[in-house]
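Example 9 (inverse folding). The structure is encoded as follows.
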């Protein structure tokens, strides 16, 4: 069994490693604001790398791990970071020290609710195996680290109590990270997720903006598992309501409970920002989420983290050092870029997902691209050719 599982996971990773080849929101004619980067992904920020481990096995296993490295997997240089909890019915480890120190030390890892512990421990073991010392936490007798691990619940499609995420899966997500195109939808930590009553998962987007003559990039990556069908809005239209009668919400032996999921949003930028400004950036993810219709219901864990890749080596300074920052009055363009990228990342997660059947025969349907385009055209919101 172990041999066959390894071969299966290797094949799945090989297929997903080539990145996104399915139509994305813009290609489907969804009207979206702003100018994206070359890949329209968080990896448009120089240095950022993303890796997935997708775990699909038999009829019951639909889960995985996603890793976001702010400076790439070869770097031990922390970045300025901050987080924001819009609704705290979820978990993101390591945030106490992030809030206290202002530094994000290592990758952001995302998985399912019951695998947070194994992912956290597996990353620590990876650090030890690779003799990697975190940039802010070096001690004479070793080092300590507080990994950032976030989760959303995939137990409707995945045998979540089977604890199928293993340490080797975490290693694969960490080491497969790349700055190339990012696979979206049913991949990595998003494999078994549901978003607005449709199949959800991983999505990403980016924006480029001008501030004071300089060009900066802001990007977002989401693990989308939130919202009710009736809430979904795309291009400002109530898409969920419009096509609900034509699409079943789910098929299962027990009712699917809407708006009890969560969403994790990772925001990055190369604009020079201090930790308190980066925290402000994390808050803006809420507005991008709201554009897609969410009200952050009581059962949803909506937790956001942001970082700035500017000011390298600031964390390792042994004495007084100088850092750069944009003045607060110059941040509006970065804020707007974050809102736009977050909105598009969520839509990309939904349109990139595919219909999936999981544990106990439960089935969640993908958003039909043709019906989406039909509604956009009906209301003169279609932006395609």
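The amino acid assigned to each position is listed next.
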């Amino acid at each position: 069994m172990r041999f066959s599982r390894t071969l299966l996971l290797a094949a799945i990773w090989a297929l997903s490693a080539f990145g996104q080849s399915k139509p994305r929101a813009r290609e489907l004619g969804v009207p979206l604001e702003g100018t994206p980067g070359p890949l329209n992904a968080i990896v448009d920020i120089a240095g950022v790398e993303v890796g997935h481990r997708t775990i699909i096995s038999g009829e019951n296993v639909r889960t995985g791990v996603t890793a976001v490295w702010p400076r790439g997997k070869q770097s031990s240089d922390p970045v300025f970071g901050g987080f924001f909890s819009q609704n705290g019915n979820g978990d993101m480890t390591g945030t106490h020290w992030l809030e206290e120190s202002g530094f994000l030390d290592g990758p952001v890892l995302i998985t399912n609710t019951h695998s947070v512990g194994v992912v956290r421990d597996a990353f620590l073991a990876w650090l030890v195996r690779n003799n990697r010392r975190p940039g802010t936490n070096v001690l004479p007798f070793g080092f300590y680290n507080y990994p950032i691990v976030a989760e959303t619940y995939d137990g409707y499609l995945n045998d979540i109590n089977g604890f199928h995420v293993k340490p080797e899966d975490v290693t694969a997500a960490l080491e497969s990270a790349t700055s190339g195109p990012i696979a979206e939808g049913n991949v990595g930590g998003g494999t078994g997720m549901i978003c607005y009553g449709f199949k959800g998962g991983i999505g990403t987007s980016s924006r480029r903006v001008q501030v004071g003559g300089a060009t900066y990039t802001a990007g977002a990556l989401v693990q989308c598992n939130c919202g009710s069908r009736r809430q979904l809005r795309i291009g400002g239209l109530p898409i969920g309501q419009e096509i609900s009668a034509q699409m079943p919400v789910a098929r299962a032996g027990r009712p699917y409970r809407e708006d009890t999921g969560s969403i994790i949003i990772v925001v990055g930028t190369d604009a020079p920002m201090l930790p308190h400004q980066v925290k402000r950036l994390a808050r803006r993810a809420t507005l991008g989420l709201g554009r897609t219709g969410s009200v952050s219901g009581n059962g949803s864990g909506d937790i956001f983290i942001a970082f700035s890749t500017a000011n390298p080596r600031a964390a390792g300074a042994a004495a007084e050092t100088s850092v750069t920052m944009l003045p607060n009055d110059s941040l509006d363009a970065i804020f707007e870029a974050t809102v736009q990228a977050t909105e598009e990342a969520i839509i990309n997660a939904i349109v990139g997902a595919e219909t999936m059947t999981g544990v106990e025969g439960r089935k969640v349907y993908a958003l039909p691209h043709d019906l989406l385009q039909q509604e956009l055209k009906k209301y003169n919101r279609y932006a395609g050719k």
